[in-house]
Amino acid sequence: MNETISIIIPTLNEANRIGGTIELVIQNAKKLDLIEIIVADGGSNDQTVSIVQSLSKVKLIFSEPGRALQMNAGAAQAQGEILYFLHADSLPPFNFDQTIRSAFGRSKLAGCFRLKFDHTHPWLQLAGWLTRFNFRFCRGGDQSLYIKKSLFFGLGGFNPEHKICEDLYFIDKIYDVKSFDVLPDYILTSSRNYRKHGLLKTQFHFGLIRMMRRLGVSHRFLYRYYSQWFNKSF
Question: Which of 63, 84, 135, 194 is most solvent-facing, going by the fewest CB within 10 Å?
Answer without folding.
Answer: 135
